[in-house]
Design brief:
This protein is globular. The protein is α/β, with parallel strands linked by helices. The mean pLDDT is 95. The protein folds into 2 domains: 243 residues, Alkaline Phosphatase, subunit A (3-Layer(aba) Sandwich), CATH 3.40.720; 133 residues, Alpha-Beta Plaits (2-Layer Sandwich). It contains 15 helices and 13 strands. The relative contact order is 0.25. The strands form 2 sheets. It has an 8-stranded mixed sheet with strand order 9-8-10-1-11-12-2-13, with helices on both faces.
Length: 403
């Protein structure tokens, strides 16, 4: 998508757009069942919506490229994730309303569990509750580093944020390799500088990790940490200004709130359930033109490799579809930021099912919201960055290009 072109063509209107993102939506056939999670799930409401929609498969970044959640969402918001890179640490920091300064270096942290040989046996430490994680963060925040202040803030469950802030004239760099190998059965990695100027920052990070492991070593679970997504705050084009609309986001998880905030959206109260999210959207319906609403459970089940749990999460979402449709959006989109097949227990590069419901739609051959059916959709397999121009067109918010 050409942001400058969209900025030129964007036209005000009183229409409403809803982008409902099912995190980790796509999957793969289960070896013993022969069907993907979406194909196995009983989702009559999603299927009915798909049958009335224009459908296809989105590519978050590029063919064969496995996206993180940040790039996957950026693409759906209309930003080229190869041009606008945002580190996970920044997103998590903004998502918990941390006062991140321009020169701070932030990282996403996980509490993890190591065995007696120092190898990771659980990357998420059993998804310890947030209250337990917060207490551990208080301990880690007492670590002192030469030449830098540090902040350790709980996010949700096993996740936390580490922020380094230089003292005096010391400079920090985010060009450091992460310590999270993103797999089990191996030891955490050592932070290595990607460029020469990041050497001192890598040293600070390794010092912090060693001190943290010493403090946590007497625990059976959550006895170590890993860090990834080292980043400093970037400058993104303002989404409401580019699209000439009022934009809001409803998401329970801090990272997605942070991403929305970075894009210029107003972040609304999300409550404690997806129904709370929908009610928050409903209560602010007259205040905004575009709404991003996020659903996490499908991705969490996918990353855990739990086929049954992901099927259940998709079936649970299906029950919310009538409430989403009752909002009366002029454009309602069901999308995913990436695929998370339970057979891989990780994000993957596979294109993601997508459906767009609006007036002036040509219903196509996709009669269900699943991978095989969406392959027959009229939108084909297309870049996720084209989702927003499509939504704007169907909402009557794009002027004609040229004479």
């Amino acid at each position: 998508m050409d942001i400058d072109l969209i900025r030129e063509l964007a036209t005000p209107n009183d229409t409403k757009i809803v982008l409902a993102v099912i995190d980790g939506l796509g999957g793969l056939p289960h070896p013993s069942r022969g069907r993907s999670e979406l194909e196995a799930a009983d989702t009559p409401r999603l299927d009915r919506l798909a049958a009335e929609s224009a459908c296809g498969l989105t590519i978050p970044v590029g063919l064969g490229i496995t996206p993180g959640s940040g790039p996957g969402h950026l693409a759906l918001f209309g930003y080229d994730p190869l041009k606008y890179t945002v580190g996970r640490g920044v997103l998590e920091s903004l998502g918990i309303d941390f006062d991140l300064q321009p020169k701070d270096v932030a990282a996403r942290g996980n509490f993890c569990t190591l065995d007696a040989d120092g190898k990771i046996v659980d990357r998420r430490a059993g998804r310890i509750p947030t209250e337990e994680s917060a207490a551990l963060c208080e301990q880690l925040a007492k670590i002192e580093l030469p030449g830098a202040d540090l902040f350790v803030e709980p996010v949700r469950d096993h996740r936390f944020v580490l922020v380094l802030r230089a003292k005096g004239r010391k400079k920090l760099s985010a060009e450091v390799r992460e310590t999270d190998p993103q797999k089990e059965g191996v030891a955490p990695l050592t932070a290595e500088p990607i460029e020469r100027g990041a050497k001192s920052t890598a040293t600070l990070i390794n010092t912090f990790v060693r001190e943290a492991q010493t403090l946590l070593s007497d625990r059976e679970t959550a006895n170590a940490i890993t860090l990834r997504g080292f980043a400093q705050q970037p400058d993104l084009p303002n989404m409401p200004e580019v699209f000439n609309f009022r934009a809001a986001a409803v998401a329970m998880y801090p990272m997605y709130r942070g991403l929305a905030k970075l894009a210029g959206m107003t972040v609304l109260e999300a409550g404690e359930s997806y129904l709370d999210e929908i009610e928050s959207l409903r209560s602010h319906w007259d205040d905004f033109d575009f709404f991003f609403i996020h659903y996490k459970p499908a991705d969490a089940a996918g990353e855990d490799g739990d086929f049954g749990a992901k099927v259940a999460a998709l079936e649970a979402f299906d029950k919310f579809v009538p409430a989403l449709r009752d909002l009366g959006a002029d454009v309602l989109m069901i999308a995913g930021d990436h695929s998370t097949p339970t057979t891989m227990a990780a994000h993957s590069w596979h294109p993601v099912p997508f459906a767009l419901s609006a007036a002036n739609i040509r219903p196509d051959a996709a009669h269900n919201l699943d991978e095989h059916s969406c392959l027959r959709g009229s939108l084909g397999t297309f870049p996720a960055t084209e989702v927003m121009p499509l939504a704007m067109a169907y909402a009557g918010r794009l002027a004609k290009y040229g004479a």
